[in-house]
Amino acid sequence: MKNSLTESDQSSWYEATARQRVDGLLDPGSFKEFVEPTARQISPHLHLFDLPEAFDDGIVVGWGTMKGREILIAAQEGRFMGGTFGEVHGGKLVGLLRFAARSRSAPRAVLMLLDTGGVRLQEANAGELAVSEIIRAILEARAGGVAVIALIGGRAGAFGGGGIMAACCSRIVVSEHGRLGVTGPEVIETNRGVEEFDSRNRPLVWQVTGGKTRRLLGGADAYAADNIKSFRDAAIRLLDKAPNFDLPTMELEQERLARRLKQFGECDSTTAIWQKMNIAERDRIAELSDAEFDRLAQLQAEANHDAR
Amino acid sequence: MRSLEIHSQAARRVGGNRTYAIVGVVASGNLEVLLERVLDGTACEVIIKTPVEGFEEIWRAVVADFIERYSPGGLKISLNDLGARPDTVSLRLAQGVRLMESGE
Amino acid sequence: MTLDELLGKLFPAGHESHVDEAGILSGTGLYGEDRVAAVLGVVNQAPLGIEGALALSGCVLQVIRQSPRQPIVVLLDGQSQRMRRRDEMLGLNEYLAHLTKCFVLARQRGHRTVGVMFGTIAAGAFISTGLAQDLLVAVAGANPQVMDMPSIARVTKLPREKLDALSKTTPVFAPGLNHAMPIGAVVEIWEGQGIATKLAAALQEPAGRPDRRDQLGLERKGRLKAAEIAQRVEKEADAYAAIVAKT
Asked: Which domain CATH number covers C198?
């Protein structure tokens, strides 16, 4: 059941709500939501902090088709409590992935529309456990041949447990807006000072954690423009290219990550990294158009691998 | 958190055959509206949850205006507000009714 | 408890190990009737950065490659992930994810894994170590946390006194073993004599069992909704699968 206002293919992914992204990605009328907002499965903890609740606890999960292909889908609402994992929010994702891992009738692909600052601190312990349970279920599903694709391009990016979760998925799609990391810039600044990370320096934030950096380094497998069609096209291309979750893949990833550390471990900026990668456009990566950047990324050995 | 319930009658029942619709997001300056076609006849209910104190008269005025303009008969409408301005509230309510009528 | 004391209690029949400059522990210990377990860990209150995570995942892969079905004991006295711009720039999320994946792969391949906390472990370091094991237990000194209370107070903009008061009525957010137990993160506390016997018994359980931590959280009343919500989604998905199959 379509439950948002009309989305077109050119609608901004960044500006869209979780429900708008789901509606935009999937074939019209194909979406079946599980634990709908009418069930009012809200957070049992937010009221202790006098905080408002959302009817779906900030995440939409369900089943639909994308260009005719059956998929499971989960979309976090990055604007509700920063898209954070709470007990109910996390539980919905755990259930979806356990179904994908267990059921022989389940679709063989899961799209994870991550838009999260990490664990919801008001429910920190429940959120952290949920992240761990989700990761185990992702890896169970992958071990059974299910492709789990992360799509990252929203306001919150994928930080904290969300950043770790993203890199446990089979494949990752990012846009320029999307950010991926563990400790957020503000927390690094609070803990280690502004010289370590000036969190108000937006270009710096994007250089360190932004989608283009992730894509060039091999921390993401595809780059999308900031619109729904571009994300859909990228996801479709990756559906049949999911690496197996097994020993050979983990050995390859160990080598890839060791090589990255060896080659770039002394670099103090992304420009220094792009220089070592012999990228001529190293001083204007942020200014490259989506098409130019995508072409550049396709040429980098580091960026295109099956070691995830 | 404050809670406000408004029970009223509309001029007619809302058209379309959707059982529910949801619009908006619980974010600063915004609100989430869940509309459910669960009441008989032309009854309508608006249940508001908000962390913002005061403004009861403004809520009542906005809701009365909405009921007058959009005739949401048969709908139970639940709002999770996070400091939205009256025009944003009116917009979301109107968006919600349009979705209920859209028949998709 | 120091690392040496813990190693002595866990492996009275003998053990040998080494700690590198990143605080990564690796070695072996004898348990049960002359069986060998791999011993790994993050110790010396070290933050877990890209070098440490890579070294530790390398150790896990070596066990998988060289010692089929050998159990792995993971000792934890660390802190959180390393908080540096440089680590983030180089993709710390991938290094921690890779470490998590290696532990889970080991379990899937029949290596029984047991985490033993004897100090702090927090946030991203917790997810990629303690929370990735078959079984997580605590001994004296254990301090599992998502985030320390002063930081929680800062980020949530709540006064510390209010948080302290709230943490007495709900286990859902505050750090500490007294909360990690009821929510299902930590299964047992091992105390006193007989820790070696408990370890030996734990290492002989099957590896890679289904994740029951949400059920445990329900039984212990620390997480009343998690298991129910997950089950509800699964049930609705199963019902929908039946409908899809007919069309």
From this structure: 3.90.226.10
**pLDDT, tens digit, 9 for 90 and up, residues B67-77:** 999 999 999 99
Give ∠ CA B95-B101-B102 in degrees, rounded to 5. 85
Is there a domain that residue C176 lies in? no
Is the distance from CB of C115 to CB of C129 less than 8 angstroms? Answer: yes
- Arithmetic mean of pLDDT over chain A: 96
Mean pLDDT on B24-52 = 97
Q: Is the ipTM of this complex over 0.90?
A: yes
Any chains having at least 3 CB pairs less than 8 A from chain B are A
Put simply, whether B4 touches A (Cβ < 8 Å) is no
Residues of A in contact with C132 (CB under 8 A): 132, 135-136
pTM score, whole prediction: 0.97
Provide the domain limits for residue C42.
3-142+186-209
> Nearest Cα to A132, choosing from C22, C103, C116?
C103
Q: What is the DSSP letter of C137?
A: E
Domains of chain A, first to last: 18-243 (3.90.226.10)
Question: Which residues of chain C from 54 to 83 reach within 8 Å of chain A, CB to CB?
Answer: 54, 57-58, 61, 64-65, 80-81, 83
Judge whether A198 is closer than 8 Å to chain C, CB to CB. Answer: no
Domain ranges of chain B: 2-101
Considering only CA atoms, which of C192, C201, C186, C185 is closest in space to residue C37? C201
Which of A263-277, B17-31, C31-45, C147-161 has the weakest average pLDDT? C147-161
What residue has token string 């909405």?
Answer: B66
Indicate yes or no: CB of A161 within 8 angstroms of CB of C124.
Answer: yes
Asked whether residue C150 is assigned to any structural domain, the reply reads: no
Quick check: is C120 in a domain? Answer: yes
Residue A219 one-letter amino acid: G
Domain B2-101: CATH architecture, name and number where available: 2-Layer Sandwich (3.30)
pLDDT band at A1 (very low <50, low <70, confident <90, very high): very low
Sign of CA dihedral C44, C47, C51, C53: positive
Reply yes or no on whether the pLDDT at B28 is more than 60. Answer: yes
Q: Which residues pair with C41 in a beta bridge?
A: C25, C75
The C-alpha of A60 sits at a distance from chain B's nearest C-alpha, in angstroms, of 12
User: C60 near C40, Cβ under 8 Å?
Assistant: yes
Q: Residues near A285 by Cβ (< 8 Å), separated by ≥ 6? A: A212, A213, A216, A270, A274, A279, A293
Q: CA A270, A276, A280: angle at the middle one, nearest 5? A: 80
Nearest to B23 by CA among A24, A41, A55, A155: A55
CB pairs under 8 A between A and B: 58
Asked if A45 lies within 8 A of C170 by C-beta distance, the reply is yes
Chosen from C69, C88, C99, C121 to mutate, greatest number of chain A CBs within 10 A: C88
> How many domains does one find in chain C?
1
Whether residue C151 and residue A190 make contact (CB cut-off 8 A), yes or no, is yes
Q: Check whether B57 has a pLDDT greater than 60.
A: yes
Query: Is residue C245, in this structure, part of any structural domain at all?
Result: no
Name the residue among B51, B80, B82 with its Cβ closest to that of A55. Answer: B80
